[in-house]
Fold this sequence. Notes:
This protein is mainly beta. It has one domain (6-71). It is built from 1 helix and 3 strands; from the N terminus they run βαββ. The radius of gyration is 21 Å and the shape is rod-shaped. The mean pLDDT is 86.
Amino acid sequence: LVDGSFTKVREVNLSWQVPSRMVSRIRGAQNAKLSLSGRNLFIISGYNGFDPEVNNGGNFVARFVDLAPFPPSRSFWLSLDLGF
């Protein structure tokens, strides 16, 4: 029997509204927002597999076997939104 409790940070988004004095340097721009985001950042768990949320597809015979045991990929992205 394995402890199934876990804590997972799925998504974080940090945004910064660029001050208008800086935006005015971009010809025609009226506003700008810079964002940094991350998905599937970390997990805290006593589970000894990759991810405590995997399942066995409801297969009674394959109990205690993780199907598709790989965790969701971790990703990061940076975006700049300009308003004209």
